[in-house]
Write a structure and sequence with these properties.
Layout (H helix, E strand, L loop, with lengths): L2 H17 L15 E8 L2 E6 L8 E8 L10 E7 L2 E2 L20 E4 L7 E6 L6 E7 L6 E8 L6 E6 L6 E7 L5 E9 L5 E9 L2 E2 L8 E3 L3 E6 L11 E9 L3 E8 L4 E4 L9 E6 L5 E7 L6 E9 L2 E3 L6 E4 L4 E7 L7 E7 L7 E8 L6 E6 L8 E6 L4 E7 L4 E7 L5 E3 L1 E7 L3 E5 L5 E4 L2 E10 L3 E10 L2 E8 L6 E7 L9
Parallel strand pairs: 5-16
Antiparallel strand pairs: 1-39, 2-8, 3-7, 3-9, 4-6, 4-8, 9-10, 11-17, 12-16, 12-18, 13-14, 13-15, 13-17, 18-19, 20-26, 21-25, 21-27, 22-23, 22-24, 22-26, 27-28, 29-36, 30-34, 30-37, 31-33, 31-36, 32-35, 37-38
Length: about 500
């Protein structure tokens, strides 16, 4: 093996450790694989994007940063959130935004102090910008940032929450709307030093919704654009699927869905289109649940609809199956499907598997004291997942094992202002959802983080609900807990890679 080959393998291995790319192997001259089994190493850099939290002048927002302690990391590193260079300055109908003026780039908003302990920062008002976050070294593996906003009154009033997410090139959002009582924005945040070009496609009950304003949207470098959906089309559609397709560059994307009467929340992107989907953590006191699904391919999808309850898998009465026409958004109201118990929705194909995306709109309360939140289909927990910004009261963790019994370890971190971490292991029977009794950090002060780690058994899905009742209105928000991608597979090279001659 020559010196060039060794150098290439070394560079590729280093790249995987930094970016979280998949495992690598390098064949020798004879075509034989010289890489050993891949080893799991912590990633060395993580980037997250937080959308601008609210347009309301009476909004109060908290940001919570947390990195779980991870073996194999060094002693150096940092994690911080900075403001985008500018918010949208157009203020026109296309963005629906308001002119925010120039903002100083790279203004530090929050800096993490130590892995294993949450760090928080608060802001208020309607001019808080989007944030760009970067974690390096010992802060990178599993870094999580939660953005939580309380809006006391007006459109979208209630509790809104979103996990700051990584940049990507494609996103699906089933559950958006351009109905008269809804004000929905797609927030696009560009973390890079060059402009991104984005198309926004809308799909309703009859297929693609005509729009030209959604094409060739330019998101300037290190900036954010809130795109008001109702300015992209004149059609009033109660249930829409939004597809964000990035032509050039990459962006972070999330939908802020605000209702005039029943509150609002962030709609995070559904997991990639798949034949089977899990939507975990429906609150047990949900008074109305709406399932919205979309099949992006050329074939219709037929799905079995099952509710994973604490006692096992059951079929919602009158909604045993769901037919989703290709290219059309389908919605079905499931009512108070959980009937006072923990629950998660599991969708599986009745025949041939056809990729779909899906999300739930969940309502709690009755009459003029209702509040809504969204649960998108999500990836399994995998190796580890984390939810930040939990409090001693008002936090619920839902765990579901759709296909087989699993053991799961849950760790409650030290508090942001003091306390000692605590852990507990649970057994989740196959086909069930459990709202588990959380371990309590001793001497807790401030907020804490929950880290979920499967120990054995089948795949596990998870969601965390934050609840806070104000003036009799049951404000709440739900975040799913997919794998944090804090570890990356890197192959171990054979001993002869150390030989540089030849």
């Amino acid at each position: 093996m020559n010196r060039t080959t060794v150098s290439l393998i070394a560079c590729a291995t280093a790249l995987a450790a930094v970016t979280g790319f998949a495992s690598l192997s390098a064949p020798d001259a004879s075509g034989t694989d010289t890489a050993k089994a891949a080893a799991e190493l912590p990633v060395e850099r993580t980037s997250l994007l937080c959308p601008s939290p609210s347009l309301s002048d009476i909004a109060d927002t908290s940001y919570t940063s947390f990195t779980p302690v991870t073996k194999g990391t060094g002693s150096d590193g940092k994690a911080e959130l900075v403001t985008t260079a500018k918010e949208s300055e157009s203020g026109d109908k296309k963005t629906g935004g308001k002119k925010a003026g120039d903002k100083k780039a790279d203004k530090p908003v929050l800096s993490a102090k130590e892995p294993g302990t949450p760090d928080t920062e608060d802001t208020s008002g309607g001019d808080s910008p989007a944030l760009i976050g970067t974690a390096e070294g010992r802060f990178a593996p599993g870094w999580t940032v939660q953005e939580t906003t309380e809006v006391a009154a007006g459109t979208g009033r209630g509790l809104q929450g979103v996990n700051c997410s990584a940049a990507d090139t494609a996103f699906w959002f089933p559950g958006a709307s351009t109905a008269a009582d809804r004000t929905d924005y797609v927030h696009l945040t560009n973390p890079d030093d060059s402009a991104a070009v984005v198309d926004i496609e809308l799909y309703g009950k009859d297929g693609a919704v005509a729009t030209t304003a959604g094409e060739d949207i330019t998101v300037p470098p290190r900036s954010s654009e809130p795109i008001l959906l109702s300015t992209l089309t004149g059609e009033k559609q109660t249930n829409l699927t939004v597809h964000v397709n990035v032509r050039s560059g990459r962006v972070g994307a999330a939908v802020q869905a605000l209702d005039d009467k029943i509150g609002g929340d962030w709609l995070a992107a559904s997991t990639d289109p798949a034949g089977s989907l899990v939507l975990p953590g429906i609150p047990k006191d949900a008074t109305a649940v709406r399932l919205v699904a979309f099949a992006p391919g050329d074939e219709d999808a037929d799905l079995k609809v099952r509710l994973a309850s604490p006692s096992g898998s059951i079929t919602p009465a009158g909604n045993e199956t769901l037919h989703v026409k290709a290219g059309m958004t389908t919605a079905v109201d499931l009512g108070a499907v959980t009937r006072g118990e923990a629950g998660s929705l599991v969708l599986t194909p009745t025949g041939d598997s056809v990729p779909v995306v899906a999300a739930l709109r969940v309502t709690r309360g009755k009459g003029d004291k209702q509040e809504t939140a969204f649960i998108p289909a999500t990836r399994p927990v995998g190796t580890r997942a984390t939810a930040a910004d939990n409090s001693a009261k008002g936090t619920t963790l839902s765990l579901v094992a759709p296909s087989g019994t699993a053991q799961v370890k849950v760790t409650a971190s030290a508090g942001s202002d003091g306390g000692t971490a605590a852990s507990k292991t649970y057994t989740i029977k196959g086909g069930t959802t459990q709202d588990v009794e959380l371990p309590q950090p001793s001497g807790l002060k401030g907020t804490y983080a929950l880290t979920v780690e499967p120990v054995s058994g089948g795949p596990v899905y998870a969601a965390r609900t934050l609840a806070a009742t104000e003036d009799g209105i049951p404000g709440f928000t739900v975040q799913t807990l997919p794998d944090d991608r804090g570890m990356v597979a890197v192959p171990e090279a054979d001993e002869d890679l150390s030989v540089l001659q030849k």
